Amino acid sequence: MTGFPYDLVTGGVVDTVTAFNQNAEQPLVIANSYHPNFKEILIGLRAGDPGVWELFDVVGAVMKRFTSITERYAWNGNDILFDGDPIDGPLAALLQHSLETGKVDDLTAVAKFGENLAMNPNLNSREQAFGWLARYKFQITSEGYVVTYKGLQLTDDPEVFTSTWASQVSGKPSGFVNGVPVPELSKIPQRVGDRVTLPRSEVLWDPNIACARGLHAATEQYARSYGGIVGIALVHPRDIVSVPHSGAKMRTAGYTLVSTDIASLPADAPVLSGADVSGWQGDVGYRV
Protein backbone atom coordinates (compact mmCIF):
# COMPACT_ATOMS: atom_id res chain seq x y z
CA MET A 1 0.00 0.00 0.00
CA THR A 2 1.30 3.45 -0.95
CA GLY A 3 1.68 5.89 1.90
CA PHE A 4 -0.10 9.23 2.08
CA PRO A 5 1.88 12.37 1.21
CA TYR A 6 2.88 14.42 4.22
CA ASP A 7 5.44 16.97 5.34
CA LEU A 8 7.38 16.34 8.57
CA VAL A 9 9.36 19.16 10.18
CA THR A 10 11.87 18.03 12.81
CA GLY A 11 14.91 19.37 14.58
CA GLY A 12 13.25 22.00 16.75
CA VAL A 13 11.65 21.83 20.15
CA VAL A 14 8.50 20.36 18.62
CA ASP A 15 8.18 18.11 15.56
CA THR A 16 5.24 18.86 13.26
CA VAL A 17 3.54 16.78 10.58
CA THR A 18 1.20 18.21 7.95
CA ALA A 19 -0.89 15.97 5.69
CA PHE A 20 -3.65 16.33 3.10
CA ASN A 21 -6.80 14.21 3.23
CA GLN A 22 -8.38 14.69 -0.18
CA ASN A 23 -11.66 13.05 0.93
CA ALA A 24 -12.34 15.44 3.83
CA GLU A 25 -14.23 18.74 3.84
CA GLN A 26 -11.24 20.27 5.62
CA PRO A 27 -8.41 18.35 3.96
CA LEU A 28 -5.41 19.97 5.65
CA VAL A 29 -4.54 18.32 8.98
CA ILE A 30 -1.68 19.09 11.33
CA ALA A 31 -0.31 17.43 14.46
CA ASN A 32 2.77 18.07 16.55
CA SER A 33 4.81 15.81 18.81
CA TYR A 34 2.68 16.80 21.81
CA HIS A 35 -0.27 15.05 20.18
CA PRO A 36 -1.00 11.78 22.07
CA ASN A 37 -1.25 9.88 18.74
CA PHE A 38 1.78 11.46 17.07
CA LYS A 39 3.79 8.24 16.60
CA GLU A 40 0.73 6.32 15.40
CA ILE A 41 -0.07 9.14 12.94
CA LEU A 42 3.39 8.91 11.35
CA ILE A 43 3.10 5.12 11.09
CA GLY A 44 -0.37 5.41 9.54
CA LEU A 45 0.67 8.04 7.01
CA ARG A 46 3.68 5.99 5.91
CA ALA A 47 1.52 2.86 5.58
CA GLY A 48 -1.35 4.62 3.81
CA ASP A 49 -3.78 3.45 6.48
CA PRO A 50 -7.20 5.12 5.93
CA GLY A 51 -7.80 5.05 9.68
CA VAL A 52 -4.96 7.50 10.25
CA TRP A 53 -7.22 10.51 9.70
CA GLU A 54 -9.25 9.68 12.81
CA LEU A 55 -6.05 9.76 14.85
CA PHE A 56 -5.63 13.47 14.17
CA ASP A 57 -8.95 14.13 15.92
CA VAL A 58 -8.20 13.18 19.53
CA VAL A 59 -11.68 13.88 20.86
CA GLY A 60 -13.50 12.27 17.95
CA ALA A 61 -11.31 9.17 17.90
CA VAL A 62 -11.57 8.61 21.64
CA MET A 63 -15.31 9.11 21.75
CA LYS A 64 -15.83 6.61 18.96
CA ARG A 65 -14.31 3.93 21.18
CA PHE A 66 -15.75 5.45 24.34
CA THR A 67 -19.37 5.19 23.23
CA SER A 68 -18.85 1.63 22.07
CA ILE A 69 -17.84 0.63 25.60
CA THR A 70 -20.22 2.57 27.84
CA GLU A 71 -23.94 2.67 27.29
CA ARG A 72 -24.89 5.59 29.52
CA TYR A 73 -22.20 8.17 28.81
CA ALA A 74 -21.91 10.25 25.65
CA TRP A 75 -20.45 13.51 24.43
CA ASN A 76 -22.25 16.05 22.24
CA GLY A 77 -19.23 18.13 21.29
CA ASN A 78 -19.53 20.41 24.30
CA ASP A 79 -20.87 18.49 27.28
CA ILE A 80 -20.55 15.09 28.88
CA LEU A 81 -23.99 13.45 28.84
CA PHE A 82 -25.31 10.81 31.22
CA ASP A 83 -28.46 9.07 30.01
CA GLY A 84 -28.79 11.92 27.51
CA ASP A 85 -28.63 14.74 30.07
CA PRO A 86 -25.66 17.13 30.40
CA ILE A 87 -23.77 16.74 33.67
CA ASP A 88 -21.22 18.92 35.40
CA GLY A 89 -19.08 18.69 38.50
CA PRO A 90 -15.74 17.00 39.19
CA LEU A 91 -16.61 13.65 37.62
CA ALA A 92 -17.67 15.30 34.38
CA ALA A 93 -14.53 17.46 34.48
CA LEU A 94 -12.33 14.38 34.85
CA LEU A 95 -14.10 12.68 31.96
CA GLN A 96 -13.68 15.79 29.83
CA HIS A 97 -9.96 15.98 30.69
CA SER A 98 -9.43 12.33 29.79
CA LEU A 99 -11.33 12.90 26.57
CA GLU A 100 -9.30 15.94 25.54
CA THR A 101 -5.95 14.31 26.32
CA GLY A 102 -6.79 11.11 24.49
CA LYS A 103 -6.42 8.87 27.55
CA VAL A 104 -8.84 6.20 26.40
CA ASP A 105 -8.15 3.75 29.22
CA ASP A 106 -8.65 6.43 31.86
CA LEU A 107 -11.77 7.64 30.10
CA THR A 108 -13.49 4.28 29.97
CA ALA A 109 -12.45 3.34 33.51
CA VAL A 110 -13.80 6.60 34.92
CA ALA A 111 -16.99 6.20 32.90
CA LYS A 112 -17.50 2.69 34.26
CA PHE A 113 -16.85 4.03 37.76
CA GLY A 114 -19.59 6.61 37.13
CA GLU A 115 -22.00 3.96 35.90
CA ASN A 116 -21.22 1.75 38.90
CA LEU A 117 -21.71 4.67 41.27
CA ALA A 118 -25.10 5.37 39.68
CA MET A 119 -26.20 1.94 40.95
CA ASN A 120 -25.75 3.12 44.54
CA PRO A 121 -29.24 3.39 46.07
CA ASN A 122 -28.34 6.27 48.39
CA LEU A 123 -28.34 9.73 46.80
CA ASN A 124 -26.08 11.16 49.50
CA SER A 125 -23.59 8.35 49.03
CA ARG A 126 -23.55 8.96 45.29
CA GLU A 127 -22.98 12.67 45.72
CA GLN A 128 -20.29 12.41 48.39
CA ALA A 129 -18.28 9.43 47.17
CA PHE A 130 -16.49 10.94 44.18
CA GLY A 131 -15.34 14.07 45.99
CA TRP A 132 -13.95 12.08 48.90
CA LEU A 133 -12.24 9.51 46.69
CA ALA A 134 -10.76 12.25 44.52
CA ARG A 135 -9.39 14.14 47.54
CA TYR A 136 -7.28 11.15 48.43
CA LYS A 137 -6.57 10.21 44.79
CA PHE A 138 -7.85 6.65 44.95
CA GLN A 139 -7.08 4.46 41.98
CA ILE A 140 -9.74 2.55 40.09
CA THR A 141 -9.68 -0.59 37.98
CA SER A 142 -10.54 -0.81 34.30
CA GLU A 143 -14.00 -2.01 35.36
CA GLY A 144 -14.59 1.02 37.58
CA TYR A 145 -14.02 -0.59 40.98
CA VAL A 146 -12.26 1.46 43.69
CA VAL A 147 -8.86 0.23 44.88
CA THR A 148 -8.83 0.62 48.67
CA TYR A 149 -6.77 -0.60 51.60
CA LYS A 150 -7.58 -2.68 54.69
CA GLY A 151 -5.64 -2.91 57.92
CA LEU A 152 -5.58 -6.65 58.77
CA GLN A 153 -4.01 -8.93 61.34
CA LEU A 154 -1.95 -12.06 60.77
CA THR A 155 -3.01 -15.46 62.10
CA ASP A 156 -1.24 -18.77 62.62
CA ASP A 157 -2.27 -19.68 59.09
CA PRO A 158 -0.21 -17.53 56.66
CA GLU A 159 -3.10 -17.53 54.19
CA VAL A 160 -5.75 -16.33 56.66
CA PHE A 161 -6.07 -12.78 57.98
CA THR A 162 -8.58 -11.17 60.30
CA SER A 163 -10.07 -7.75 60.82
CA THR A 164 -8.22 -5.76 63.47
CA TRP A 165 -11.16 -5.51 65.86
CA ALA A 166 -14.12 -7.72 66.60
CA SER A 167 -17.67 -6.63 65.94
CA GLN A 168 -19.31 -4.96 68.92
CA VAL A 169 -22.88 -5.73 67.81
CA SER A 170 -24.46 -8.70 69.54
CA GLY A 171 -27.22 -10.83 68.12
CA LYS A 172 -26.10 -10.44 64.52
CA PRO A 173 -23.35 -12.03 62.40
CA SER A 174 -20.14 -10.01 62.46
CA GLY A 175 -20.20 -10.21 58.69
CA PHE A 176 -20.39 -12.69 55.84
CA VAL A 177 -17.47 -14.27 53.99
CA ASN A 178 -18.49 -15.63 50.61
CA GLY A 179 -22.05 -15.70 51.93
CA VAL A 180 -21.20 -17.64 55.11
CA PRO A 181 -22.04 -15.81 58.36
CA VAL A 182 -19.29 -15.04 60.86
CA PRO A 183 -20.34 -15.51 64.52
CA GLU A 184 -21.38 -12.43 66.49
CA LEU A 185 -18.79 -10.37 68.36
CA SER A 186 -16.00 -11.89 66.26
CA LYS A 187 -13.20 -10.73 64.07
CA ILE A 188 -13.76 -11.49 60.40
CA PRO A 189 -11.37 -14.12 58.96
CA GLN A 190 -10.58 -13.75 55.29
CA ARG A 191 -8.29 -14.97 52.55
CA VAL A 192 -7.17 -13.34 49.34
CA GLY A 193 -10.05 -13.75 46.90
CA ASP A 194 -12.77 -13.71 49.56
CA ARG A 195 -15.85 -11.54 49.27
CA VAL A 196 -16.74 -9.91 52.60
CA THR A 197 -20.20 -8.36 53.04
CA LEU A 198 -22.68 -6.90 55.50
CA PRO A 199 -26.36 -6.16 54.89
CA ARG A 200 -26.47 -2.57 53.73
CA SER A 201 -29.19 -1.82 56.28
CA GLU A 202 -26.72 -2.59 59.09
CA VAL A 203 -24.12 -0.09 57.88
CA LEU A 204 -24.61 3.37 59.39
CA TRP A 205 -24.95 6.04 56.73
CA ASP A 206 -24.64 9.17 58.90
CA PRO A 207 -21.41 10.93 57.75
CA ASN A 208 -21.30 12.96 60.96
CA ILE A 209 -20.34 9.81 62.86
CA ALA A 210 -16.80 8.75 62.01
CA CYS A 211 -16.77 5.44 63.85
CA ALA A 212 -19.68 3.02 63.40
CA ARG A 213 -20.65 -0.42 62.11
CA GLY A 214 -19.61 -1.12 58.57
CA LEU A 215 -16.88 -2.66 56.44
CA HIS A 216 -14.23 0.02 56.34
CA ALA A 217 -12.03 0.83 53.37
CA ALA A 218 -9.24 3.37 53.71
CA THR A 219 -6.22 5.07 52.25
CA GLU A 220 -2.99 3.10 52.45
CA GLN A 221 -1.59 5.45 55.10
CA TYR A 222 -4.65 5.13 57.29
CA ALA A 223 -4.76 1.34 56.91
CA ARG A 224 -1.15 1.11 58.06
CA SER A 225 -2.05 2.99 61.24
CA TYR A 226 -4.20 0.16 62.57
CA GLY A 227 -3.22 -3.01 60.72
CA GLY A 228 -0.40 -5.46 61.22
CA ILE A 229 -0.56 -6.02 57.47
CA VAL A 230 -2.20 -4.00 54.71
CA GLY A 231 -4.45 -5.67 52.17
CA ILE A 232 -5.79 -4.37 48.87
CA ALA A 233 -9.59 -4.51 48.68
CA LEU A 234 -11.74 -3.72 45.66
CA VAL A 235 -14.97 -1.89 46.42
CA HIS A 236 -17.84 -1.62 43.95
CA PRO A 237 -19.06 2.02 44.09
CA ARG A 238 -22.57 0.63 44.54
CA ASP A 239 -21.49 -0.69 47.98
CA ILE A 240 -20.23 2.63 49.37
CA VAL A 241 -22.54 3.56 52.23
CA SER A 242 -20.98 6.42 54.19
CA VAL A 243 -18.12 8.85 53.74
CA PRO A 244 -17.52 10.37 57.19
CA HIS A 245 -16.83 14.10 57.27
CA SER A 246 -13.62 13.34 59.17
CA GLY A 247 -11.36 10.44 58.42
CA ALA A 248 -9.45 8.81 55.58
CA LYS A 249 -11.78 5.83 55.47
CA MET A 250 -15.33 5.06 54.37
CA ARG A 251 -17.95 2.54 55.41
CA THR A 252 -19.06 0.00 52.84
CA ALA A 253 -21.38 -2.97 52.59
CA GLY A 254 -18.88 -5.16 50.78
CA TYR A 255 -15.40 -5.61 49.37
CA THR A 256 -13.20 -8.27 47.82
CA LEU A 257 -9.74 -8.83 49.26
CA VAL A 258 -7.49 -9.19 46.22
CA SER A 259 -3.94 -9.02 47.58
CA THR A 260 -1.67 -8.33 50.53
CA ASP A 261 1.14 -7.29 48.21
CA ILE A 262 0.97 -3.52 47.80
CA ALA A 263 3.65 -3.66 45.13
CA SER A 264 1.30 -5.70 42.93
CA LEU A 265 -0.89 -2.66 42.28
CA PRO A 266 -0.28 -1.30 38.76
CA ALA A 267 1.31 2.14 38.98
CA ASP A 268 -0.58 3.27 35.88
CA ALA A 269 -4.06 2.46 37.19
CA PRO A 270 -6.35 5.46 36.57
CA VAL A 271 -6.54 7.91 39.47
CA LEU A 272 -9.64 9.79 40.55
CA SER A 273 -8.76 13.44 40.98
CA GLY A 274 -10.28 16.89 41.05
CA ALA A 275 -10.56 17.77 44.73
CA ASP A 276 -8.12 18.90 47.41
CA VAL A 277 -7.75 17.28 50.80
CA SER A 278 -9.19 19.63 53.37
CA GLY A 279 -10.80 19.53 56.77
CA TRP A 280 -9.52 16.16 57.93
CA GLN A 281 -8.27 16.27 61.51
CA GLY A 282 -7.80 12.59 62.19
CA ASP A 283 -10.21 9.93 63.34
CA VAL A 284 -11.22 8.40 66.63
CA GLY A 285 -11.21 4.71 65.87
CA TYR A 286 -12.39 1.81 63.79
CA ARG A 287 -15.17 -0.71 64.11
CA VAL A 288 -16.08 -3.68 61.95
Task: Break the fold down into its secondary structure elements and pairings.
Layout: E1 6-9, E2 16-20, E3 28-32, H1 38-47, H2 52-56, H3 58-69, E4 73-75, E5 80-82, E6 85-86, H4 90-101, H5 104-118, H6 123-135, E7 146-154, E8 161-163, E9 175-177, E10 180-182, E11 189-190, E12 195-197, E13 215-218, H7 220-224, E14 229-235, E15 240-242, E16 249-252, E17 254-259
Antiparallel strand pairs: 1-2, 2-3, 4-5, 5-6, 7-8, 7-14, 8-11, 9-10, 9-12, 12-17, 13-16, 14-17, 15-16
Residue stretches low in confidence (pLDDT < 50, at least 5 long) are 275-288
Mean pLDDT: 86
User: What Rg is obtained from the alpha carbons, in whole angstroms?
Assistant: 23 Å
Tally the beta strands: 17
Coarse shape? elongated
User: Helices and strands, in N-to-C order?
Assistant: EEEHHHEEEHHHEEEEEEEHEEEE
Helix content: 25-40%
Question: Mind describing the biggest β-sheet?
Answer: 8 strands, antiparallel
Strand content: 15-25%
Strand order of the largest sheet: 10-9-12-17-14-7-8-11
Tally of separate domains: 3
Structural class: alpha+beta
Tell me which oligomeric state these chains represent: single chain
